[in-house]
Amino acid sequence: FPSHDTIPSDVSRSCIHELYHHFQNEKGQLGENSGEDGDRWENEANSFAGKKMRQIGRDNPQIFSMTYDN
Questions:
Q1: H or E element: which one contains 45?
Q2: Cα-to-chain-centroid distance, residue 32
Q3: Contact 49, 16 (CB under 8 A)
Q4: CB neighbour burial string for 7-42, b if at least 16 within 10 angstroms, e if fewer
Q5: How many whole angstroms separate alpha carbon 60 and alpha carbon 32?
Q6: Distance (Å, rounded) from C-alpha 25 to C-alpha 19?
Q7: How high is the pLDDT of residue 61?
Q8: 1-21 pLDDT, tens per residue?
């Protein structure tokens, strides 16, 4: 379970990021060294997750201020 200082939008972004890696893997794009900091596949997953969170945030701005306590 996430720590109390982690907000739900962080968890959502991480899930989107990892699901994008699954998509990359299904397409046969990931290799043995994929996931290194700054590599093409890691940057692509980061970019995709960031874009999706901005889209979600435009419609649901409260997600960026939510905590697990509220």
A1: helix 40-59
A2: 21
A3: yes
A4: bebeebbeebbeebbeebeeeeebeeeeeeeeeebb
A5: 37
A6: 10
A7: 87
A8: 555 667 888 889 999 999 999
Distances (CA, A) of 40 to 15, 27, 46, 61: 19, 15, 10, 30
Is a pLDDT exceeding 70 seen at residue 70? no
Q: Tell how far CA 14 is from the center of its chain.
A: 3
pLDDT tens-digit map of 22-48:
999 999 999 887 878 889 999 999 999
Q: How far apart are CA 12 and CA 57, in angstroms?
A: 11
DSSP letter string over 19-36? HHHHHHHHTT---TTTT-
